[in-house]
C-alpha cells in the first residue's frame, strides 16, 4: 500500500515485482553513473584551458564512444528481456479468474467453480467508515489464495479500463472484444489495493 509522501515503490508481494524492483535499481545506478561522468566532463571542459587537439580527432576515442554506449544498452536490455519473458509465462495455473470491466464496476468470475460470480462496486465517499481509503474501497473484494499461480483473464464490456495491482507488479488493459491474460502469485497474505 502506498503512503502519503512516499518516494519509492510499494513493497513487493510477488516474485515478478521483486525482479522489477531489482531491475529499476540496476538501471538507475547505470543512469546515475553516466550522469556523473557527463557532469564531470562538462565541468572539466568549462574549468580547464588545457586541450589536446589530437585527442579530439583520434580514431580510438570515436571507437570507444561508439562501443561503450552499445555495451551499456546491452547491460540494460538483457535483464529487461528476462523479466519480460518471466512476466509472460503461464506455469500451469491453479485458479482462473475472469475479470470484466464495466463503466463503474468490475465483475469477477471464478471459472473453476460453478456459479461463483460477483460484482465489485466502489464505495461512495459519503459511506466510507473511518480508516477506509477513498476511491480504493469496494463492497466485494477479490479473495485469492497465497503462493499459488493464478491466471487472470481480463476484458471489458463497454469502455477501456486498466486492471492494476502495483504491489504485485500487475497492470493489464481491459479492452472491449479482446481477452488479455496475466498471471500472479502472492508470496504473503495481505490486502492489496489497485
TrEMBL record:
One Gene Ontology biological process: ATP synthesis coupled electron transport
InterPro entries: CcO_II, CcO_II-like_C, CcO_II_C, Cupredoxin, Cyt_c_oxidase_su2_TM_dom, Cyt_c_oxidase_su2_TM_sf
Residues covered by the Cytochrome oxidase subunit II copper A binding domain: 92-194
One GO CC annotation: mitochondrial inner membrane
Highest taxon of the lineage: Eukaryota
Subcellular location(s) per record: Mitochondrion inner membrane
Membrane topology label: Multi-pass membrane protein
PROSITE patterns documented for this protein: COX2_CUA, COX2_TM
Record carries keyword GTP-binding: no
PANTHER family in the cross-refs: CYTOCHROME C OXIDASE SUBUNIT 2, CYTOCHROME C OXIDASE, SUBUNIT II
Family recorded in the similarity comment: Belongs to the cytochrome c oxidase subunit 2 family.
Function: Component of the cytochrome c oxidase, the last enzyme in the mitochondrial electron transport chain which drives oxidative phosphorylation. The respiratory chain contains 3 multisubunit complexes succinate dehydrogenase (complex II, CII), ubiquinol-cytochrome c oxidoreductase (cytochrome b-c1 complex, complex III, CIII) and cytochrome c oxidase (complex IV, CIV), that cooperate to transfer electrons derived from NADH and succinate to molecular oxygen, creating an electrochemical gradient over the inner membrane that drives transmembrane transport and the ATP synthase.
Protein name in the entry: Cytochrome c oxidase subunit 2
Organism: Arabitragus jayakari
Encoding gene, per UniProt annotation: COII
Amino acid at each position: 500500500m502506498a503512503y502519503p509522501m512516499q518516494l519509492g515503490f510499494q513493497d513487493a508481494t510477488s516474485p515478478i515485482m521483486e525482479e522489477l524492483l531489482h531491475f529499476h535499481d540496476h538501471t538507475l545506478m547505470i543512469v546515475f553513473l553516466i550522469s556523473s561522468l557527463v557532469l564531470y566532463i562538462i565541468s572539466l571542459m568549462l574549468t580547464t584551458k588545457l586541450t589536446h587537439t589530437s585527442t579530439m580527432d583520434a580514431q580510438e576515442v570515436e571507437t570507444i564512444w561508439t562501443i561503450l554506449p552499445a555495451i551499456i544498452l546491452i547491460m540494460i536490455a538483457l535483464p529487461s528481456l528476462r523479466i519480460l519473458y518471466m512476466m509472460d509465462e503461464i506455469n500451469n495455473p491453479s485458479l482462473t479468474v475472469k475479470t470484466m470491466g464495466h463503466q463503474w464496476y468490475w465483475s469477477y468470475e471464478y471459472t473453476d467453480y460453478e456459479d461463483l460470480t460477483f460484482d465489485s462496486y466502489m464505495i461512495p465517499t459519503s459511506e466510507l467508515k473511518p480508516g477506509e481509503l477513498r476511491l480504493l474501497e469496494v463492497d466485494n473484494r477479490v479473495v485469492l489464495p497465497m503462493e499459488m499461480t493464478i491466471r487472470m483473464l481480463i476484458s471489458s464490456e463497454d469502455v477501456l479500463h486498466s486492471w492494476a495491482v502495483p504491489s504485485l507488479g500487475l497492470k493489464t488493459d481491459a479492452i472491449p472484444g479482446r481477452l488479455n491474460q496475466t498471471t500472479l502469485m502472492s508470496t504473503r497474505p495481505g490486502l492489496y489495493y489497485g
